[in-house]
Structure formats: structure tokens, C-alpha cells
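User: My instructor asked us to take a sequence, write out its structure as C-alpha cells, and then describe one feature of it. I'm not sure where to start. Here is the sequence I was given:
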Amino acid sequence: MTATTTGPRLDDLRIGDRIPELRRTPTRVQLFRYSAITWNTHRIHVDPEYAAEEGYPDVLVQSHLHGAFLVSLCTDWIGTAGRLVRLEVSVKRFAVPGDVLVCAGEVTGIEPVDDTQGLVHLDLTETREADGVVCAIASASVALPR
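Assistant: Let's start with the prediction itself. The C-alpha cells for your sequence are:
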């Protein structure tokens, strides 16, 4: 039995194509768990009173969790056919539990490697839905079959 793959194919893509958006709404429990699993003991992510003392409206989404949401955007899109080969993330603004974060991406480059595969370069953003503030930007490259 032959395994099947799902996801986009390099030859079907064009520069300027948008990839399907991904929405995430972090919760306090998620932030607590993420801090625990990453050994992040900074109280700004789990203690609302401490976050308020620092001038924030609530605990903050971890920078690496912003990055994880953008990883999910890529890997959900490429499915089993592709492979994420590079991701560079820059967090610009904070997000708090309950914020709806919209992850979006656009194809910025297509680079055939050989007859069977190539690289697709993407610009990614993570935006707070309520006010349009960009929380994170990223660039990524994914390997896809032709």
C-alpha cells in the first residue's frame, strides 16, 4: 500500500498567493502550561497582579508561543507533503488571554530545487483581531513536492 500525502504542490503556487488563515485564542491555562513545559518562570506570563504592576492589562502570551502559532500556520498548510525548513520570528507587540490572534501568510518566492521538489518562501503575520495590531512577523521557507 502506498502512502498518500496532502498539501499544496510547488507548481500550483504563485507569488502573492495567500495561505489559509489560522486563528488562535490563548487562555490563561494555556499560558500556564506553556510556561511549565518550557521552564519559563517569568511571572508576567502566569501572575495577573504582577503583570499589572508591570503596566500590562493581563498576563502576556510568551514570545515562543507566538512563534508556535506561526509554526502551526505553516505546518497546517503544508500538510504531510511538505517540510518547514526555516522560520525567523520577531515579536512586536504583546497579546493577552482572550485575544483572537489571526495568523496569515503570503507566498513571496518560489524556488524549484529539482524535478521533484522546491522551496516556497513566505511572509507571515500574527495580528490581534480586535484592533489590527501586529503582534509578530515572520519569514519562513517550506519544502514542497512539485
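For the description part of your assignment, you could build on this observation: The chain has a mean pLDDT of 95. Try explaining in your own words what that tells you about the chain.
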